Protein backbone atom coordinates (compact mmCIF):
# COMPACT_ATOMS: atom_id res chain seq x y z
CA UNK A 1 0.00 0.00 0.00
CA UNK A 2 2.00 2.99 -1.30
CA UNK A 3 -0.13 5.56 0.49
CA UNK A 4 0.90 4.08 3.86
CA UNK A 5 4.58 4.30 3.06
CA UNK A 6 4.13 7.92 1.95
CA UNK A 7 2.70 8.79 5.36
CA UNK A 8 6.07 8.00 6.92
CA UNK A 9 7.96 10.70 5.05
CA UNK A 10 11.08 10.35 7.19
CA UNK A 11 11.30 6.59 6.57
CA UNK A 12 11.98 6.16 10.27
CA UNK A 13 10.38 3.64 12.63
CA UNK A 14 7.03 4.82 13.96
CA UNK A 15 6.64 3.34 17.42
CA UNK A 16 3.31 2.39 18.99
CA UNK A 17 4.48 1.96 22.57
CA UNK A 18 5.97 4.04 25.37
CA UNK A 19 8.41 6.43 23.69
CA UNK A 20 10.93 5.84 26.47
CA UNK A 21 11.54 2.37 24.99
CA UNK A 22 14.12 3.02 22.26
CA UNK A 23 13.83 1.27 18.91
CA UNK A 24 17.13 -0.52 19.61
CA UNK A 25 15.24 -2.43 22.34
CA UNK A 26 12.76 -3.91 19.82
CA UNK A 27 13.38 -7.32 18.28
CA UNK A 28 11.54 -9.62 15.91
CA UNK A 29 9.86 -12.78 17.20
CA UNK A 30 8.63 -15.79 15.21
CA UNK A 31 5.44 -17.37 16.61
CA UNK A 32 4.62 -19.26 13.44
CA UNK A 33 4.06 -22.99 13.02
CA UNK A 34 7.43 -23.07 11.22
CA UNK A 35 9.47 -22.12 14.30
CA UNK A 36 11.05 -25.36 15.62
CA UNK A 37 11.66 -23.80 19.05
CA UNK A 38 7.92 -23.74 19.67
CA UNK A 39 7.70 -27.54 19.64
CA UNK A 40 8.51 -27.44 23.36
CA UNK A 41 6.03 -24.64 24.19
CA UNK A 42 2.25 -24.68 24.10
CA UNK A 43 1.87 -21.07 23.05
CA UNK A 44 -1.93 -21.23 23.22
CA UNK A 45 -1.35 -21.18 26.99
CA UNK A 46 -0.66 -17.58 28.13
CA UNK A 47 1.96 -18.55 30.71
CA UNK A 48 3.92 -20.77 28.30
CA UNK A 49 3.67 -18.16 25.57
CA UNK A 50 5.05 -15.60 28.02
CA UNK A 51 7.92 -17.95 28.88
CA UNK A 52 8.93 -18.09 25.23
CA UNK A 53 8.60 -14.32 24.77
CA UNK A 54 10.77 -13.74 27.85
CA UNK A 55 13.33 -16.20 26.48
CA UNK A 56 13.55 -14.30 23.19
CA UNK A 57 13.73 -10.90 24.90
CA UNK A 58 16.47 -12.05 27.28
CA UNK A 59 18.45 -13.68 24.49
CA UNK A 60 18.36 -10.52 22.38
CA UNK A 61 18.62 -8.02 25.23
CA UNK A 62 15.36 -6.32 24.27
CA UNK A 63 12.13 -5.07 25.87
CA UNK A 64 9.62 -5.44 23.02
CA UNK A 65 9.18 -8.38 20.65
CA UNK A 66 7.22 -7.69 17.47
CA UNK A 67 6.02 -9.41 14.31
CA UNK A 68 3.30 -11.71 13.13
CA UNK A 69 1.80 -10.29 9.94
CA UNK A 70 0.33 -13.21 7.95
CA UNK A 71 1.94 -15.76 10.28
CA UNK A 72 0.18 -19.11 10.51
CA UNK A 73 0.10 -19.87 14.23
CA UNK A 74 -0.88 -22.54 16.75
CA UNK A 75 -1.66 -19.73 19.18
CA UNK A 76 -5.41 -20.04 18.57
CA UNK A 77 -5.77 -23.82 18.74
CA UNK A 78 -7.57 -23.87 22.11
CA UNK A 79 -10.21 -21.27 21.22
CA UNK A 80 -13.48 -22.49 19.70
CA UNK A 81 -14.06 -19.13 18.01
CA UNK A 82 -11.20 -19.93 15.61
CA UNK A 83 -12.01 -23.59 14.97
CA UNK A 84 -15.67 -23.37 13.95
CA UNK A 85 -15.91 -24.21 10.24
CA UNK A 86 -12.57 -23.60 8.51
CA UNK A 87 -9.72 -23.22 10.98
CA UNK A 88 -8.67 -19.57 11.30
CA UNK A 89 -4.96 -19.43 12.10
CA UNK A 90 -3.42 -16.72 9.87
CA UNK A 91 -2.69 -13.50 11.75
CA UNK A 92 -3.72 -10.26 10.01
CA UNK A 93 -1.94 -7.62 12.11
CA UNK A 94 1.34 -7.04 13.91
CA UNK A 95 1.79 -7.91 17.57
CA UNK A 96 4.00 -6.09 20.06
CA UNK A 97 4.74 -8.26 23.11
CA UNK A 98 5.85 -6.48 26.28
CA UNK A 99 4.80 -5.81 29.88
CA UNK A 100 1.19 -5.20 30.89
CA UNK A 101 0.60 -1.53 31.65
CA UNK A 102 2.90 -0.30 28.87
CA UNK A 103 1.59 2.88 27.22
CA UNK A 104 0.13 2.63 23.72
CA UNK A 105 0.61 5.78 21.63
CA UNK A 106 -1.07 7.03 18.46
CA UNK A 107 1.08 6.55 15.33
CA UNK A 108 -0.98 9.14 13.39
CA UNK A 109 -3.66 11.73 14.03
CA UNK A 110 -7.03 9.99 14.18
CA UNK A 111 -10.52 10.14 15.64
CA UNK A 112 -12.28 7.43 17.61
CA UNK A 113 -14.48 5.44 15.24
CA UNK A 114 -15.60 2.90 17.84
CA UNK A 115 -14.48 0.87 20.84
CA UNK A 116 -15.66 -2.19 22.75
CA UNK A 117 -14.70 -4.77 25.34
CA UNK A 118 -14.74 -7.96 23.25
CA UNK A 119 -14.98 -10.51 26.03
CA UNK A 120 -15.45 -13.85 24.28
CA UNK A 121 -12.56 -16.26 24.73
CA UNK A 122 -9.73 -15.62 22.28
CA UNK A 123 -10.98 -12.19 21.22
CA UNK A 124 -9.27 -8.82 21.87
CA UNK A 125 -10.73 -7.76 25.19
CA UNK A 126 -10.72 -3.92 25.31
CA UNK A 127 -10.40 -2.66 21.74
CA UNK A 128 -10.08 0.73 20.05
CA UNK A 129 -10.56 1.62 16.37
CA UNK A 130 -9.32 4.98 15.05
CA UNK A 131 -10.37 6.52 11.74
CA UNK A 132 -7.79 8.40 9.66
CA UNK A 133 -8.41 10.63 6.64
CA UNK A 134 -5.19 11.70 4.97
CA UNK A 135 -4.66 12.92 1.39
CA UNK A 136 -8.23 11.96 0.43
CA UNK A 137 -7.72 8.41 1.72
CA UNK A 138 -9.74 7.07 4.67
CA UNK A 139 -8.55 4.01 6.57
CA UNK A 140 -8.68 2.59 10.09
CA UNK A 141 -6.29 1.30 12.74
CA UNK A 142 -7.25 -1.23 15.40
CA UNK A 143 -5.64 -1.58 18.84
CA UNK A 144 -6.50 -4.79 20.67
CA UNK A 145 -5.72 -6.32 24.10
CA UNK A 146 -5.81 -3.03 26.00
CA UNK A 147 -6.52 -2.53 29.70
CA UNK A 148 -9.98 -1.81 31.10
CA UNK A 149 -8.69 1.60 32.21
CA UNK A 150 -8.05 2.45 28.56
CA UNK A 151 -11.77 2.39 27.75
CA UNK A 152 -12.33 5.40 29.99
CA UNK A 153 -10.35 7.56 27.53
CA UNK A 154 -12.66 7.06 24.58
CA UNK A 155 -15.77 8.61 23.13
CA UNK A 156 -16.84 8.45 19.50
CA UNK A 157 -15.36 11.28 17.45
CA UNK A 158 -12.64 12.15 19.99
CA UNK A 159 -9.42 13.31 18.34
CA UNK A 160 -6.09 11.76 19.28
CA UNK A 161 -3.02 13.54 17.91
CA UNK A 162 0.05 11.61 16.83
CA UNK A 163 2.04 10.64 19.93
CA UNK A 164 -0.91 10.91 22.34
CA UNK A 165 -1.47 8.09 24.83
CA UNK A 166 -4.25 5.80 23.56
CA UNK A 167 -4.25 3.47 26.54
CA UNK A 168 -2.27 0.73 28.23
CA UNK A 169 -1.69 -2.98 27.63
CA UNK A 170 -3.95 -5.35 29.55
CA UNK A 171 -3.19 -8.42 31.64
CA UNK A 172 -4.21 -11.94 30.50
CA UNK A 173 -7.38 -11.91 32.63
CA UNK A 174 -8.50 -8.73 30.81
CA UNK A 175 -7.20 -9.39 27.29
CA UNK A 176 -9.07 -12.72 27.17
CA UNK A 177 -6.28 -15.18 27.78
CA UNK A 178 -3.15 -13.94 26.01
CA UNK A 179 0.27 -12.90 27.20
CA UNK A 180 0.32 -9.07 27.35
CA UNK A 181 0.70 -7.49 23.92
CA UNK A 182 -0.72 -4.96 21.49
CA UNK A 183 -2.47 -6.22 18.38
CA UNK A 184 -2.14 -3.48 15.73
CA UNK A 185 -3.99 -3.80 12.44
CA UNK A 186 -4.63 -1.52 9.47
CA UNK A 187 -8.04 -1.88 7.82
CA UNK A 188 -9.11 -0.22 4.57
CA UNK A 189 -12.83 -0.97 4.73
CA UNK A 190 -14.50 -1.74 8.07
CA UNK A 191 -17.83 -2.57 6.44
CA UNK A 192 -20.38 -2.76 9.29
CA UNK A 193 -17.93 -3.58 12.10
CA UNK A 194 -17.76 -1.38 15.17
CA UNK A 195 -15.26 -1.88 17.99
CA UNK A 196 -14.14 -5.16 16.47
CA UNK A 197 -12.79 -6.68 13.25
CA UNK A 198 -11.34 -10.13 12.47
CA UNK A 199 -7.66 -10.32 13.35
CA UNK A 200 -7.18 -13.90 12.17
CA UNK A 201 -8.45 -15.59 9.00
CA UNK A 202 -8.66 -18.97 7.31
CA UNK A 203 -6.49 -19.90 4.33
CA UNK A 204 -9.50 -19.76 1.98
CA UNK A 205 -10.14 -16.11 2.87
CA UNK A 206 -6.52 -14.96 2.89
CA UNK A 207 -6.48 -12.97 -0.36
CA UNK A 208 -9.66 -11.09 0.61
CA UNK A 209 -8.32 -10.09 4.03
CA UNK A 210 -4.79 -9.46 2.79
CA UNK A 211 -6.10 -6.83 0.37
CA UNK A 212 -8.19 -5.15 3.09
CA UNK A 213 -5.57 -5.39 5.86
CA UNK A 214 -2.20 -4.34 4.45
CA UNK A 215 1.10 -5.00 6.18
CA UNK A 216 1.40 -2.47 9.04
CA UNK A 217 5.12 -2.28 8.36
CA UNK A 218 4.39 -0.21 5.24
CA UNK A 219 3.59 2.52 7.76
CA UNK A 220 5.74 1.61 10.75
CA UNK A 221 8.98 0.99 8.81
CA UNK A 222 10.35 -1.41 11.42
Structural commentary:
- Helices cover 16% and strands 27% of the residues.
- With 222 residues, it is α+β, with helices and mostly antiparallel strands.
- The radius of gyration is 16 Å and the shape is globular.
For this entry, give a set of tags.
222 residues, alpha+beta, two-stranded antiparallel sheet, 5 helices
Write the layout of secondary structure elements.
Layout: H1 2-7, E1 26-28, H2 46-60, E2 64-67, H3 80-83, E3 88-91, E4 94-97, E5 103-105, E6 110-118, E7 125-134, E8 137-144, E9 159-160, E10 165-168, E11 181-187, E12 200-202, H4 206-212, H5 217-220
Parallel strand pairs: 1-2
Antiparallel strand pairs: 2-4, 3-12, 4-11, 5-10, 6-7, 6-9, 7-8, 8-11
The total beta strand count reads: 12
Low-confidence stretches: none
Tell me the strand order in the biggest sheet: 1-2-4-11-8-7-6-9
Structural category is: alpha+beta
Distance between the termini: 15 Å
Which shape, going by the Cα principal axes? Answer: globular
Rg, nearest Å: 16 Å
User: How many helical elements?
Assistant: 5
Main β-sheet, in a few words?
A: 8 strands, mixed
Query: Strand percentage, roughly?
Result: 25-35%
Report mean pLDDT, rounded to a whole number. 91
Helix content: 10-25%
Query: H/E order of the elements?
Result: HEHEHEEEEEEEEEEHH
Write a short abstract of this structure:
By secondary structure, the protein is of the alpha+beta class. The chain has five helices and twelve strands. α2 links the parallel β1 and β2.
Amino acid sequence: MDFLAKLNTERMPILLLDGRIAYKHYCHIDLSVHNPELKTFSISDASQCQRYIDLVLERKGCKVAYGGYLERRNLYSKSERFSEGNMRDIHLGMDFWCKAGTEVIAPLDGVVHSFNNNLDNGNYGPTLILEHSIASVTFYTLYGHLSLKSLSLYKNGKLFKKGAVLGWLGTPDVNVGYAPHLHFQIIINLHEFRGDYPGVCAEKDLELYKSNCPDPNHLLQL
